[in-house]
Amino acid sequence: MAQKILVIDDDPDIVESLRITLESAGYDVVDANNAEVGLEKAKVEKPALIILDIMMPTGTEGFHFVWKLRSPETEEPLRDVPILVLTSIHETTPLRFYPEQHDIEYAPGEYLPVQEFVDKPIDPKEILKKVEKLLGTGAKQ
Amino acid sequence: MMAQRDEIIAEELLHRISWFIYLRWVAVLGVSGTILFARHAIGVIAPLPQLFTVVACIAIYNAIFHAGLVHPRLFKWCWFFEKLDFHTKAAALANTQIVLDLLMLNLLLHFSGGVENPFAFYFIFHMVISAILLSVRASYGQATFASAIFAGTVLAEHFRLIPHYHLNPLPMLCDEPIFVFGVCTAFITTLFITVYMTTSISGKLRAREREVVSLANALQQKTNQLSEAYQKLSELERMKSKHMRKMSHELRTPLNAVESLLAVLEQGLAGELPEKAKELTARASFRVKEMLGIVDDMLALSRIREARLKPIRQDVNIHEIAEKVISAFQPQAELKGINLILHSSGNLPTIQADPDSISELLSNLVSNAIRYTPEGGKVWVRLRPEEENIVIEVADTGIGIEADELENIFDEFYRTRRAKEFALSGTGLGLSIVKAVVENHKGSIKVKSEVGKGTTFTVTLPVIGKVGAQASNLKSLSEGRLANP
Asked: How large is the angle between the packed helices A12-24 and A124-137, nearest 10 degrees?
């Protein structure tokens, strides 16, 4: 059975590029254009990987999605699903995010609990390599 | 402005009047002392009651003036006086004091020998003081008044119109007409000449004083204007930076979309493309990447410029950052067969800096070095400590920079002629970013280059927080801050 990937991004062209790329490698793709819908779809579709745009459309929606997904409210195994984050910042910059008002136990200073970062624009070859790495090793760091 | 200048001059006048009042207290003591000394030490007989009455009068009116100076509220009942403007008030005050003094001095002399008393010379003091405190006309007026009362008293005594208080044991000179006439003439001429000489000098001094105050005011105005202009400039810089950042951000989103779509096309994922189509797609993709490069650089530049207002300072291990940058650029260097090495002396101190900016600085210098060095060349990064600084050197065996362009290389979007020939793409912002980071950290940068041979950039950064950091900041700033042709 083909593995399912959930793409969450508000830019339809990025979504389309990812869809074509992933489907060409045999993955099933479902998409959402905002964090709320994304969370719903994640619960329903139970994807093997989530690709998330962190800057969508303001600076905080993406972050809140991750904290919510990783919170004890979310049931296993969804809570530990690997997340690949799409950023607009250079990869060389180490990223450090802080939870804002959340009842989640992540201590400030901890890295955002995601598995990989990729810069936009999408390079299909690079995306596929990273996806394979995450799904191949089966997940959580 | 005029008001301010007048204010300063008015204050000066007030100071001088109060000085005059204090001087009079000294005089009161002096006169009293002299009278007693003359009587008891030298044995000169003079009518003590009359003399001390005069001294008492002086003391009384000086006390009134002194009180008026320290507690002006006591004299609010002088409504005619309050109505006048400051200068007239001051002039009236000065004139009154001088007139009173002249009268008292004259009385003192009258009771102590008149024309025989050598202390008649003391009238000269008041001539000098008039010249300082009063207008030229008033000074001559006082000279005239002094002459009149002195000559009047002396002549009245000579002609026995009023009693002569003779000072034993001095000779009886007040009856000698030639002597009396001589003294009066000498006295009057002395007074007028004194007034003439001192008013000339004081006139010039006053003019100079007015000039100075004028200049001081003008200077203050200019300084204020300058400060305003500087603030406006800073504000404009900040707005420019903010605008650049917003624009860059807005541009990046659609550019990302375009490049993603082109990449998918180019890699045949939306269907195999004919050769020509593939080529064109690749070319389009190249240009978009160019634009993305410019946008990224602009974003970096405005971020660094805005960081100047709120600098980030952490312990930074430059060696670690340099290693990361070198390994990031190693693949690029290998593609061109360029030897990319890091030389780091062992005892590098930790510096207080913004790690991201330092990374940006090194990345840009190394990226440039690689881009503008032909295949098979060398690029090296050297790190070493120097007094209270760290020196970062990035050298290459590249195309070099022509001497006449050295002063422009840090300008935004500037690319040298040779650079444009050698490598088609380049944003022209790399060195602007480097310069902004150097400035943020209060460091300095120098460049040495030889066309066809290579270029060396030397960045000196202070290790902030250590003793002596200030001194070396100044030193490194004066030692050629930016590129010198």
From this structure: 60
pLDDT tens-digit map of B168-200? 777 888 888 899 999 999 999 999 999 999 999
Chain A residues with a Cβ under 8 Å from any Cβ in chain B = 11, 13-14, 16-18, 20-21, 24, 88, 90, 92-93, 120-125
Residue pLDDT, tens place only, B53-112: 999 999 999 998 888 888 877 766 666 666 677 777 778 888 999 999 999 999 999 998
3-state secondary structure (DSSP) of residue A86: strand
Say whether pTM exceeds 0.80: no
Those residues whose C-beta lies under 8 Å from the C-beta of residue B223, and which sit 6 or more positions away, are none
Q: How far is CA B392 from CA B342, B345, B348, B438, B446, in A?
A: 11, 11, 11, 11, 11
Select from B57, B48, B55 the least CA-distant residue to B30: B55
Q: Residues in chain B, how many?
A: 485
Q: Which two tokens stand for residue A72?
A: 């004890």
Q: Residue B250: how many CA atoms within 13 Å on its side-chain side?
A: 6
pLDDT for the residue B55: 93
CA distances from B288 to A121, B68, B291, B293, B353 (A): 10, 84, 5, 9, 34
For B229, what's the count of Cα atoms within 13 Å in the CB-facing half-sphere?
A: 6
Smallest CA–CA distance from A23 into chain B, residue:
B269
> Would you state the pLDDT for residue B227?
94
Contacts of A123 in chain B (CB under 8 A): 263
Annotate B370-435 with DSSP letters as a single string. Answer: HHTS-TT-EEEEEEEEETTEEEEEEEE-S----GGGGGGTTSTT---HHHHHH-S---S-HHHHHH
Residues of B in Cβ contact (< 8 Å) with A21: 264, 269
Phi and psi (nearest 5°) for B482? -120, 180
Assess B251–A contact: CB distance below 8 Å, yes or no.
no
B256 and A14: CB-CB below 8 Å? yes
* A6, β-bridge pairs: A30, A50
B291 in contact with chain A, both atoms CB, cutoff 8 A:
no
* Low-confidence residues in chain B, pLDDT < 70: 1-6, 75-83, 465-485
For residues B346, B351, B355, B360, the Cα torsion angle rounded to the nearest 10 degrees is: -70
Contacts with A, B 119-138, CB within 8 Å:
none
Q: Distance (Å) from the C-alpha of residue B280 to the closest C-alpha of chain A? A: 18
Question: Model confidence over A27-53: pLDDT tens digits?
Answer: 999 999 988 899 999 999 999 999 998
Distance linking the first and last C-alpha atoms of chain B: 46
Cβ proximity of A41 and A32 under 8 Å: yes
CA distance B256 to chain A (A): 5
Please check whether residue A49 is in contact with residue A134, taking contact to mean a CB–CB distance below 8 angstroms: yes
> B461 Cβ partners below 8 Å, 6+ apart?
B351, B353, B389, B390, B392, B438, B441, B443
A16, A88, A90 member nearest B256 (Cβ) = A88
Determine the angle formed by the axes of helices B136-158 and B123-133, rounding to 10 degrees. 160
Partners of residue A88 in chain B, C-beta under 8 Å: 252-253, 256
Q: The tokens of B200 are what?
A: 């000339």
Closest B-chain CA to A89:
B296
B399: closest CA of chain A, how far (Å): 28
